[in-house]
Amino acid sequence: DAGVTQSPTHLIKTRGQHVTLRCSPISGHKSVSWYQQVLGQGPQFIFQYYEKEERGRGNFPDRFSARQFPNYSSELNVNALLLGDSALYLCASSLDGRQNQPQHFGDGTRLSIL
Amino acid sequence: DAKTTQPPSMDCAEGRAANLPCNHSTISGNEYVYWYRQIHSQGPQYIIHGLKNNETNEMASLIITEDRKSSTLILPHATLRDTAVYYCIVRAPSGGTSYGKLTFGQGTILTVHP
């Protein structure tokens, strides 16, 4: 069975641009979460979506937004890119997002801002 | 979410058991203990989770003390491929803006030697 897939794997942007990252969850999983991992640190929670609704939000500016589609795939959008947005962006899926359901991660999109 | 404390690094000989400790002295009764690991350039990999009882799966065993203030992840026969950063996470019940949130710390860098 396919795991969580993310696209693209690598991306280079310049300051001020916007970016859209995509995630396809494991088949049957209805919840998707997004994390940002800066080099040398653990992943930081950005959003969680379940049944197309935002259910959780981390401490990130409004430049970050996301949505979930009827097929449970998801997009993360970042506007007005800053150098500090350079990071590995990780998507994780779970059955329903509840506490006792493990989240399974993709290998991420590495975003570099020049 | 309850904070966790892990040693920054540990070594283990190939073929021996690796025992990774985690302190979570402020854990609440309804919070789960999760373990993930991350191999360089990959997304975090789910290992195991538990609430009160000890748990075992094909990858590892999780031993939670009776007072739940600490836990140990056991890899019974470590291999070179187990070299990774191991994260111990205490996960709060789903609710509010923390729905689905995993809070990663710095983790333990486990190095398995031949």
Molecular structure report:
The complex is a heterodimer of chains A (114) and B (114). The mean pLDDT of chain A is 95. In chain A, strand 7 (64-68) and strand 8 (74-78) form a beta hairpin. Chain A starts with a strand and ends with a strand. Chain A has 114 residues and is mainly beta. The radius of gyration of chain A is 13 Å and the shape is globular. Chain A has strands spanning 5-7, 10-13, 19-24, 31-37, 44-50, 53-57, 64-68, 74-78, 87-94, 104-105, 109-113. In chain A, 0% of the residues lie in helices and 50% in strands. By secondary structure, chain B is mostly beta strands. Helix content of chain B is 0%, strand content 44%. Chain B contains no helices and 9 strands. In chain B, the strands form 2 sheets. Chain B has a 5-stranded mixed beta sheet with strand order 1-9-8-3-4, with no helix packed on it. A 4-stranded antiparallel beta sheet of chain B has the order 2-7-6-5, with no helix packed on it. The radius of gyration of chain B is 14 Å and the shape is globular. The N and C termini of chain B lie far apart (37 Å). The mean pLDDT of chain B is 93. The interface between A and B is medium-sized, with 29 and 29 residues.
Uncertain spans of chain A: none
Radius of gyration of chain B: 14 Å
Amino-to-carboxy terminus distance of chain B: 37 Å
The succession of helices and strands of chain A, N to C, reads: EEEEEEEEEEE
Percent of residues in β-strands of chain A: over 45%
Number of helices of chain A: 0
